Amino acid sequence: MDHVQCLAAGALTQVLAGRSLDAQLAAVWRAEPELSPQQRGGVQDLVYGALRHLGTLDAMLAQLLQKPLADVAVRSLLRVALYQLGHTRASAHAIVDHAVTACGRSGHPQARGLVNAVLRNYLRRRAEIEAAAASTDEGRYSHPLWWINKLAADYPDHWRGILEAGNARPPLTLRVNLRKTSREDYLRRLHQQGIAAEAVGRAGVIVARPCPVSQLPGFAEGHASVQDAGAQLAAEILDVRPGMRVLDACAAPGGKSAHLLEIADIDLVAADIDAGRLQRVAENLSRLSLHAQLLQADAENPDAWTGIAAFDRILADVPCTASGVVRRHPDIKWLRKPGDIAALTRRQARILDTLWRMLGGGGKLLYATCSLFREENGLQVEAFLARHADARPVSLMLPADGITQIEGQLIPDAAHDGFFYALLEKI
To answer: What are the domain boundaries of the chain?
Structure first.
């Protein structure tokens, strides 16, 4: 376990220094090819958990340390061990002993006494330490204070629930490929294999206990794909019909492109600026036995679309802060800065203006983000409508099965992430 703790603490340090969690974990797997699946799962769980609860862990450390700890590696090890003590079923004695051993393994033997003392002090004073940590908003909600204040201002009736949802473990949600099977048949196959699941939305399934996709029936044959229930609404809202010419302008990794093709026989162009990510679109479509024209293109650059015929429907799932999907990507809330929002909104506006030119008369464009921040969502759409007299908003027809939404903004909960949708028609 001490090796797993070391790797998790090292990954946490790198993420907090500015590296994305996905990139850092990929680097760990390359550097440690001998890790067993169980060890990989352990490292991943510890890093994800420490990032989800980082605000609380740091608030507890502030109570446990007599002075600020300058050694970032030891601080990360303490965060990981405190997460284990508070959120896993592992033996407290074993966690402490392994953390002390991990100090030597990671090249910090001088910190053994400190690590032992801090962790044992936490165990003796746990209720007191946790209560003190929860007395501050950062300690209670485990998000940066600027983020908390922003959500509280934008969602006075929902901000606490949004923050709590962002700290939860996300469900494994599948989209059934209705071209190959029915949802009822797929649920039956899951239950036959002892996998409890329930229906969500029109084609979704939430698996009660997440498992590797290799254990899911028919996954390799394209009978299902992993996709959040909120993300599954995009293809349904866009209202595609057979024979339409459709553009998915920021398509990678291809989940929404695939869903559009599962819904109707359309002429789909799946575009993305990144060739490597576009390859992932190709792989996903191939597994599902679907076909689209793949195009490497910058959605911001009008010249990239020269000579391309107009589209009947456009999906603009634009780059954003991803503030609505932090339970799946907990590094985001610590890596994002307030200034990132303005830079992203400028980019989103350029994408919208460029793609609007590619939409034919009477066509519809769906603007989508996985953000909760109003500047990227409702305010962005208002500014767009003020610039384009030939655009009008179309009322969204969202399913009523438990989804809370405010003017196109899905409020994240146990079943879905925090997506935003605005459907615009060219008149």
So the answer is: 2-141, 172-226, 233-426
CATH of domain 233-426: 3.40.50.150
Q: Do domains 2-141 and 172-226 have the same CATH topology?
A: no
CA distance 201 to 408: 16
pLDDT of residue 400: 58
Omega of the bond leading into 37 within 30 degrees of 0 (cis):
no
Report yes or no: 263 and 241 within 8 Å, Cβ to Cβ: no
**Phi, psi angle pair for 349, to nearest 5°:** -65, -40
Please identify which residue in the block is written with the tokens 């209202």: 239
Q: Which letter does DSSP use for residue 250 in this model?
A: T
Q: Residue 194 class from Cβ within 10 Å (0-12 exposed, 13-18 middle, 19+ buried)?
A: exposed
Collapsing DSSP to helix, strand or coil, 150 comes out as: helix
Amino acid at 219: F
**In this predicted structure, what is the pLDDT of residue 105?**
76
Mean pLDDT score of the chain: 95
What SS3 string covers 190-235?
HHHCCCCEEEECCCEEEECCCCCHHHCCCCCCCCEEECCCCCCHHH
Catalytically annotated residues: 370
For 114, the token pair is 């400190």
Contact yes or no for 17/50 (Cβ under 8 A): no
What would the pLDDT profile of 352-398 be if each residue is shown by its tens digit? 999 999 999 999 999 999 999 999 999 999 999 999 999 999 999 77
* H helix intervals, 268-399: 275-287, 332-335, 338-356, 378-387
Label residue 254 left, alpha or beta by phi (over 0 means left) and psi (-120 to 50 means alpha): left
SS3 sequence of 107-149: CCHHHHHHHHHHHHHHHHCHHHHHHHHCCCHHHHHCCCHHHHH
Asked if residue 224 lies in contact with residue 287, where contact means CB atoms within 8 angstroms, the answer is no
Pick the CATH number of 2-141 from 3.30.450.40, 3.40.980.10, 3.40.50.300, 1.10.940.10: 1.10.940.10
User: For residue 267, how many C-alpha atoms fall within 13 Å in the half-sphere facing its CB?
Assistant: 7
Name the CA radius of gyration of the chain, rounded. 23
Which CATH superfamily is 172-226 part of? Sun protein; domain 3 (3.30.70.1170)
Inter-residue contact 59 to 130 (CB < 8 Å): no
Would you call 105 exposed, middle or buried from its count of C-beta atoms within 10 A (0-12, 13-18, 19+)?
A: middle
184, pLDDT greater than 80: yes
